[in-house]
Design a protein that fits this description.
Layout lengths: L4 E5 L6 H17 L4 E5 L5 H8 L4 E5 L16 H5 L4 E4 L2 H6 L4 H13 L3 E6 L3 H5 L3 H11 L11 E4 L13 H19 L1 H6 L2 E4 L7 H5 L6 E4 L6 H12 L2
Parallel strand pairs: 1-2, 1-8, 2-3, 3-4, 4-5, 5-6, 6-7, 7-8
Helix pairs in contact: 1-2, 1-11, 7-8
Bound molecules: 2-phosphoglycolic acid.
2-phosphoglycolic acid binds next to strand 8.
């Protein structure tokens, strides 16, 4: 059985005090919801403070990025070692990083390796652009992205995949549950061909892109979808709580 996961990607939002306030608003209720992994991914600067706020609760912490070197002259970067005792998860290869910060498949894979080396679990994001989708190239693009980070060992180390069609991120235009299920089914099948049925069966694959409290049920009721990576809607305590609650009730 794959335990469902809801991860909130706060992106570049909230000051430290706003971040603490947001967690405080949901801490108690979130802690009590069972049968789902609840992960929040605030900006780097708030991780230490939030770690303290959620201490002793069932809420898990993730970072939004990582550098692939352990230490050295890389001004401004955050190393895997620095994150290892702060959080359990790290989002890697988000389309905003691929797009705005020129992260190639090769860089993404170095980051995945670096995260796993210190015991951080990557939430590896993949997804196609609108024009690729419209040209019927979705499977080809996903295959290429999966091929860049395809070590069998990743799947035994807690890696989570997130399918996020770029045209659905922050646009209010989510994929339909059926579309997402079909594509995630393709991803699972591909992993099965590469690494065997058991590996494919065990890996959690989330959907991301304009998920809200109003449409979450559509996704988590699908057999292939194991939860969601939530952006905008994770910044509102009541909405995030509702998404997590609905997921726990499936
Ligand atoms: P969104 O973002 O929910 O605001 O569309 C999702 C994501 O980028 O992870």
């Amino acid at each position: 059985m794959r335990i469902p996961m809801i991860a909130g990607n706060w992106k570049m939002n909230t000051t430290v005090s706003e971040a603490i306030e947001l967690v405080n608003e949901m801490r108690q209720e979130l802690d009590q919801i069972d049968n789902v992994d609840k992960v929040i991914c605030p900006p780097f600067v708030s991780l230490a403070a939030i770690k303290e706020v959620i201490e002793g609760s069932s809420i898990k912490l993730g970072a939004q990025n990582i550098y692939f070197e352990e230490k050295g002259a890389y001004t401004g970067e955050i190393s895997p070692l620095m994150l290892a005792d702060l959080c359990e998860f790290v989002i890697i290869g988000h389309s905003e990083r691929r797009q705005h910060f020129n992260e190639t498949g090769e860089i993404v894979d170095k980051k995945v390796k670096a995260a796993l080396k210190v015991g951080l679990k990557p939430i590896l994001c993949i997804g196609e652009r609108l024009e690729e989708n419209e040209a019927g190239r979705t499977e080809e693009v996903l295959t290429e992205q999966l091929n860049s980070s395809s070590d069998r060992i990743y799947y035994f180390s807690g890696l989570v995949l997130a399918y996020e069609p770029i045209w659905a991120i922050g646009t209010g235009r989510a994929a339909t549950g059926e579309q997402a299920n079909e594509t995630i089914g393709f991803i699972r099948q591909y992993i099965s061909q590469q690494h065997g049925e058991k590996v494919a069966h065990n890996v959690r694959i989330l959907y991301g892109g304009s998920v809200t409290a109003d449409n979450i049920a559509e996704f988590i009721n699908q057999p292939e979808i194991d939860g969601a990576l939530v952006g905008g809607a994770s910044l509102k305590a009541s909405e995030f709580l509702s998404i997590v609650k609905q997921t726990s009730e499936i």
